[in-house]
Write a structure and sequence with these properties.
810 residues, alpha/beta, Rossmann fold, Immunoglobulin-like, TIM Barrel, 4 domains
Length: 810
Amino acid sequence: MEVYEREHMNTVRALSPECMVLLKSDGSFPLGEPGKIALYGNAARKTIKGGTGSGDVNTRHYVSVEEGLENAGFSITTKGWLDGYDAIWNAANKEFRAGIKRTIAAQGISAIMLGIGAIMTEPTYALPLDGEGDIALYVLGRISGEGADRAPEKGNLLLTDTEVRDILQLQKQYARFMLVLNVGGVVDLSPVVDEVSNILLISQPGIAVGDALADVLLGKAYPSGKLASTWAAWQDYCPVAEFGDPNDTRYKEGIYVGYRYFDTVDKAPLFPFGYGLSYTQFAFSDVKTAVQDSKVQVTVTVTNTGAWAGKEVAQLYVSVPCGVLPQPYQTLAAFAKTKELAPGESETLALCFAMEELASFDEESCCAVLEKGDYVLHLGADSRNTAVCAVVRLEENALVQHLHDAGGKPDFADWQPEHRKTVQIPEGTPCLEIKASAISEIIPTAPAIDEKAAALAASMTDSDLALLCTGAYNGAAGSNSVIGNAGVTVIGSAGETTGIFPEIPALIMADGPAGVRIAPKYGVDEKGPYSLDSGAFSEVLDLIPDEMIAALGFSREMLNEKRSGTVHEQYCTAIPIGTALAQSWNPAVCEACADLVALEMERFGIHIWLAPAMNIHRLPLCGRNFEYYSEDPLISGKMAAAITKGVQKQPGRAVSIKHFCCNNQETNRMHSNTLVSQRALRDIYLRGFRIAIEDSAPATVMSSYNLLNGEHTSQRRDLLETILREEWGYRGIVMSDWVSGNINKPDDKYPGAVASGAVQAGNDIMMPGTPGHQADILAALKGEAAYKVTRNDLERCAARMIALAWRLGK
């Protein structure tokens, strides 16, 4: 490893425990010293650093649990079990891959995403649990990724019979047993949760996962994470929430997502939102509340009352009064994490929010409003473990912002629960009053186009402007990459902007969000640079029949061509997945990881990192939930803002927050239509994006593949110009997701997105770039395409691209 790789691995190792969540503990851990340990489970040796697809990272090496334990001095007594499991898994995987290859051959290019995101369910087996010693770990793994959703089936969201049998047996057999969860999202633990005494969610924390776990087991580090999404039995999620229809998916549950549902209907989950134990214990005291104008502040003293060092998170929830608009039982309004507290040490935290942040969208008036009444403040350590600490009374209704009828409308009314948990206010609770006049109406400033960039755009031909609004491509076919591998300047990068204009620098983009994804090795000879290793996608290409390789812009001969140039390496660092970062409840952890990413972007010549991904964890079935942060928009927005700040403080580096918006399933992702009310859209699915944009000013936003209420997000002018730019004052560019030559299936209800639709809507560049994109834009100028594009539309998008190129490409 090079010096930067070791330094970055050490950074990730140090940060990872803050992302780990201790779900159950009987005091058996941490251990005093390494010794004999019995290691079981599908992820003990086949440990998962992160998810699959474009969010994967090509590292030189990452540390498995088995390796990490041995590095720490443990003697593993179950090598026979691990070898036996490997043989069983390899046989099952061989048949699984053969099945994918048959499916691709039968269904054509539209099925290629199966090879990227398909999940092999766990095989059944009967291996003896005969490891020596009185300490055992069972490491449960679940891989998920781009291109395929999860399913409520055994071996996927649910535990297999084999896993249940072995976990329960190990709990009985060993004096000290821990179930370790190496998963990207929720797993239904209901068959074992009551019996197992110690459960640690290590999530998928990146390159140093095994070493970081060993540190936690030995007490050299401690878990201080909290859940960023509710963990529940599958059957307990909101029953009206549709998922996975290839054509139309209706978000009938409205605003009742995650803990907003469970808390409102008073249904107990397995582990609530915000939950997490520690090796030590904490106490809250001396709670004080103050109001100034529309700002609310709660201070609390947190004391470590146990015997180990640790960190605690104070969480402030608010019950918004139900007036004309129905409300969930409570919503997260602020949070703060302590520094490391030694036993007996205290720290006073301040949790602050502005009342305007609690505004709800009123569809009838198209305004964000605060209704009069009592806003009840709950302080605690998770959403189900809080105490009322104050009431803030608003004397009359207050207008927060005039908005627009935007985003379209669904064909249903949002579901409302028949029975709601009521808020109980203890006698003597402090009551603070706020006048409606203290609420400031938000009046955004519309972003201006850079005058010099606009002048240059006005001087260019239609054809040149269309090139600026299309990703760079080579040859008559252009790029057909839908897997973020279309770059030509940096081998294995996701794509780039055109570089044919001397005065406008090309911008190179690399996928994320768990680190920079580029080819780990490439060569340079007299023909130029060429890839030596496509990393995670090499296995996918092996699944594709020869006749389909050309449709992806490759040839089998090109892939197998023997060239002998100078070899270069581009190994990058896998940071914790988005869900793990959110579990830190600490923006400083996110910013530290982003600092690391920015340095690698600079090293390898990347201008734009296609991250952070911040869609809401609507249900645990979404295949890309591992990339996303939380079911809560405040957590999502704050973590994404921290990532953005970390990257963009490095000159010439930028992010692209994605996927804007409602990209909550992978099933038929380029043609699926999300139907959602404007209330839910704004209060749940857009709110995190708004927070990130207002807090950190990301340079770019990526629109999503899906349709929103009947129109692609990249083609909704009311979404990109009205909401994003006019209402929020966003000043950056919008790029599409990687829309290659339209991959349509005969049974698709909706057509694919097109470049003309993007430009007229304010989606500034169509990626990854094909001649068809440019041709469609030019045809639209003549009124000969699906969408009409004016010269002003094209100049506006091109000017924004020019300004960004000047800003980043100096």
